[in-house]
Amino acid sequence: MIIFLYGVDDYRREAKKREIVAEFRKRHSNLGLMTFDLAEEGGSAKLREFLANQSLFQSAKMAVLDSAFEIEAPSSAKASAGKKENLLSISVKAYGEPKLVVKVDKRYFSPEPAVNSAIIKISGIGRKMFVENKVNEGIFWQIVKAGFAHKRKKLSGNLKSLCQGSTLTSLGDKRAEDLTLTDWISLARGLKPSA
C-alpha cells in the first residue's frame, strides 16, 4: 500500500504521518519501521538496504520516505525501454517489481520542483532475483556500484579492475546507464568472489 501525503500545510501533513505511523506501530511493532530522507546523501542506498533485508521478527515493513519528490527517485526507479537506467532504478528492480501508479505534475507541489514526479508501487520485495539467476549478491552490487561510480565514463574504464579484457571489449562504448538489469546480471555471473 502506498499512502501519499502532500500539500502546503506542513503541520497537518506531519500530523497525518504521525497518525499513520502510530497505527502501524500499534498493529505490528517498531521493528519493521524506518524513515528515509531521499534528499540526504545515501538516503536511497539506505532504502535499498532496508528493502533487501529480511527478518524473522518482522511481520510487516513500513518505509516512510521524506523528500521523495525533491529528487527524481520515483520516475527514475521506473526506467523503461529506451530510457537511461541509474543506480536507484537497478536497485528497485533487483529487489522488487516496480509499477507506475500515477504521474504527479510538479504544479501540485509548493515550492514547485524542477521535475515532474510519479508514485510507484514496488511489489514482490525480496532477494528472488539473486536466487533465481544464481547471482552472488555481493558481486552484483560490487560491479553495479563500480559501473555507476563515474557517470560520464565508459563502462570499459569503470570496470577495468573487475572484468577481463574480452568482457570489457564486448561492452564497447556503453555507459552504466545503458545497461539493463539483465545485462548487469550477465556481467556479475562472469565474476568470481574475491578471496
N- and C-termini, Cα separation: 42 Å
The main sheet comes to: 2 strands, parallel
Q: Output the number of helix runs.
A: 9
Radius of gyration: 19 Å
Q: What class do helices, strands and sheet pairing give?
A: alpha+beta
The percent range for helix content is 40-55%
The strand order across the widest sheet is: 1-2
What is the residue-mean pLDDT, rounded to a whole number? 76
Classify the beta-strand content into a percent band.
5-15%
Tell me the number of strands: 4
Order of helices and strands: HEHEHHEEHHHHH
Please give the domain count: 2
Instruction: Provide the low-confidence segments as ranges.
Output: 70-76
Shape: globular
Q: Key features?
A:
alpha+beta; Helicase, Ruva Protein, domain 3; two-stranded parallel ribbon; globular
Explain the overall architecture.
The chain has 195 residues and is an alpha+beta fold. The chain folds into two domains: 10-126, no CATH class; 131-189, Helicase, Ruva Protein, domain 3 (Orthogonal Bundle). It contains nine helices and four strands, in the order αβαβααββααααα. The chain has helices at 10-27, 43-52, 73-77, 87-95, 128-132, 137-148, 155-158, 165-171, 181-189; strands at 33-37, 62-66, 97-104, 117-123. A two-stranded parallel sheet has the order 1-2. α2 links the parallel β1 (33-37) and β2.
